[in-house]
Amino acid sequence: MSPTDPLLVMRDVNKRFQGVQALSAASLEVEPGEIMALVGENGAGKSTMIKVLTGAYRRDSGSIVFGGEPVDFASPQHAQHGGISPIYQEINLVPFRSVAENIFLGREYRRYGLLDWGRMNAEAADVLRRFAVEIDVRRPLMDFSTAIQQMVAIARAVSFKARLVIMDEPTSSLDEREVSVLFDVMRRLRAEGVAVIFISHRLDELYQVCDRVTVMRDGRTVMASRMADIDKLHLISAMLGRDLETVRARSTGFSAAHAAAGEVVLSAQGLQIGRKVRDARVEVRERQIVGLAGLLGSGRTEVARAIFGADPADAGTIELGGRAVSPREPAEAIALGVGYCSEDRKADGIVPDMSVRENMTLGILPRLTNMGIVDEARQREIVDRFMKRLAIKASSAEQKIRELSGGNQQKVLLARWLCTDPKLLILDEPTRGIDVGAKAEIQALIRELADQGLGVLMISSELEEITEGADRVFVLSDGRTVADLPHAEASAAAIMAAMAHGGAGAGAGEEAVNG
Prior knowledge:
Blueprint: E1 8-17, E2 20-30, E3 35-39, H1 46-53, E4 61-66, E5 69-70, H2 76-81, E6 84-87, H3 99-103, E7 110-111, E8 114-115, H4 117-129, H5 146-158, E9 164-168, H6 176-191, E10 195-199, H7 203-209, E11 212-217, E12 220-226, H8 232-240, H9 244-249, E13 264-273, E14 277-285, E15 288-293, H10 300-307, E16 315-320, E17 323-325, H11 330-335, E18 338-341, H12 345-348, H13 356-360, H14 365-368, E19 369-370, E20 373-374, H15 376-389, H16 406-418, E21 424-428, H17 436-451, E22 455-459, H18 463-469, E23 472-477, E24 480-486, H19 492-501, H20 506-514
Parallel strand pairs: 3-10, 3-11, 6-9, 9-10, 15-22, 15-23, 18-21, 21-22
Antiparallel strand pairs: 1-2, 1-4, 4-5, 7-8, 11-12, 13-14, 13-16, 16-17, 19-20, 23-24
Helix pairs in contact: 16-17, 19-20
């Protein structure tokens, strides 16, 4: 391999599953020491391409050259030993083992026939310091947050001395500081000549750290470009296969029309919850999407969980439909007509090994059960109705929900709450980790549900989602509601000003943002 040759060349790769063409003459090239973005909608073929590369799937045809040599890895472990180290979005480590054990799993150091714990613990701590993570590596992995576990998975991959590291949505569980540290590590890897394939739905991240981008659509490679040569609109246009004017019209799937609000569904005043929330208030009316904005740690999720009864408020009042309530557990809130899609659908939403049918009807099983026996005919009728109404793409209602795309999993969770006929639907980051096409579908569905009379409380970290989708926006800062903005005044500048200055006027905020 000469210094000018690509590190990886995948050419004319084809893969078919039970009559479905997952990859069709797909290609991918990665240079030594470059960060390559691999993007596309869910189902575009990104994951299949990576699994073919790492030996998890056998390709039907095509060629793969790595390091100047033709390769045909028999398994991901074989690929790791060959210099390719993948990090998957779903953390696939052993929670009951120590951090050090997880980093060295399968390649433990030995001394005189015994495990060399001192060396493994020391090297595990050293590699984690590269990520600004200082923890006791002797403790079980399960003792740490999801973000730390993700960092451990990344540290494990880097410790293999790989020539190519594949990162699949590595930032989905990380906060801004952790993302910044990860990007620093990626840049360090690039400087050391290690290449990175970076898969992310967060387009802003691609422009921060990637050198080039490869776009896939419908199992084909449709574009490869330097990041500096393509703007975000052209990139989205390539991913969706839509003309630029359609993409430029609106950046979200929310319609421009906003229905007239009805009666008050939710009124929460003076909420205090632990040490995170000191004085929060929010109001939601029928046919209204209310945005709840704020920086990480501002108390948004705590407010939502208090209304749902998951973490009851220590002080303050909650009224649902004009009636004072104080739900002490989710079952009480559900009975009062409240539904809640949590921020982490994997941990708190779906039951991965259960079917679409079982997941969708979890919330109404008591209504479908007579003397302990589920009325399956009625259950199937409800599931079929909502699968059609929400356009859920699955082979059947019996398919395991973990096999669905992120967007379709989110639709199943929405259907779970719609089955309960709620008056108020709380959505915490409803489009996180979902590709741009499915995101627009979810957003359009939320607007449709609100127009049909539902009250929606939507938490989102994406300002475009809040400014385009919400009829009214409450802004939280340090556990306090610092602004209440109608749609016409809820610009990104006004929201950011409120976050930064505790409710300072929009004019001052715009000056601060622009200055």
